[in-house]
Amino acid sequence: MMEAPAAGPLKDGYGRRIDYLRVSVTDRxxxxxxxCLPKDFxxxxxxxxxxxxxxxARLVGLFVALGVSKVRLTGGEPxxxxxxxxxxxxxxxxxxxxxxxxxxxxTQLARHAQDLRAAGVDRLxxxxxxxxxxxxxxxxxxxxxxxxxxxxxxxxRAGFAPIKLNSVVHAATxxxxxxxxxxxxLAQGFVLRLIEPMPMGDCGRNFSHVDxxxxxxxLAAQAGLVPAVxxxxxxxxxxxxxxxxxxxxxxxxxxxxxxxxxxxxxxLGVDGTLYLCLGQEDRVPLGALLRGGASDAVLTRAxxxxxxxxxxxxxxxxxxxxxxxxxxxxxx
Length: 332
Hints:
Elements: E1 20-24, H1 53-65, E2 70-74, H2 84-92, E3 99-104, H3 109-119, E4 123-127, H4 133-140, H5 145-158, E5 163-168, H6 175-188, E6 191-195, H7 201-204, H8 212-223, E7 226-227, E8 238-241, E9 247-252, E10 265-268, E11 273-275, E12 283-285, H9 286-291, H10 296-308, H11 327-330
Parallel strand pairs: 1-2, 1-10, 2-3, 3-4, 4-5, 5-6, 6-9
Antiparallel strand pairs: 7-8, 8-9, 10-11, 11-12
Helix pairs in contact: 1-2, 2-3, 3-5
């Protein structure tokens, strides 16, 4: 029986309401995107240290009881882990949860889209950096673009809408390819979101960012898009629309224009480590506490203490070498 936490919204020491939890169900991935994981990386978490789906649901339930209303299942590649649809169903049924989503690279999506939708997943974010098969293979280390496109088609058939395409854009990204992605998104009814790479791990520091606010504005002008009304989209993205109110292009700019002042999220690693900021090392070993026999009350106090200590902002600009862990190890 879960013990009731203190009433009221979950806030950090800077008054920010924390209502969004990103949950990694595995740090493994079947791709090796050049800005995310080195091709020869083998430093994954030992499976024995992964939280079981039941343990994950228990921790997520504590966050939801504290006021978290939005949960995203991530990885690595979450659809490599067996039973993710079952975990999604357990989370979707939690009273107070308003939004459940999944981030995926799309390679396994054709097999799982229908089950995820039936389990109660509301939204999907699918990574897609290019529509050129050769470039896709170079970026990801695999020739599987057609599998990703098939997964997107399956997601549409399953009823997911809107589907967001997450595309990492850096200084060497051909602008013509970004426009091609936008045209594809417009034709398919998807939302394209351009994301600046962050200097996480050695591979992340190999890519220089460009100011995507400028790139987005140029693309929007070319495509006849207009800025979305301020506050019309949840999260850190700035959007443009076709004029009918639905966002179709967004930019996420953690480097050129960070959004730390309005950060509303924390991340739970596959081993139950609570990461309070992507660009800092502050963390809480919730998984170790849970497996050590901690009660819900003890875990809740640990969560509250961690949230209270959430850093004000990342140091990516001033100290890009500080974070040695890769994105897949934290949970996207």
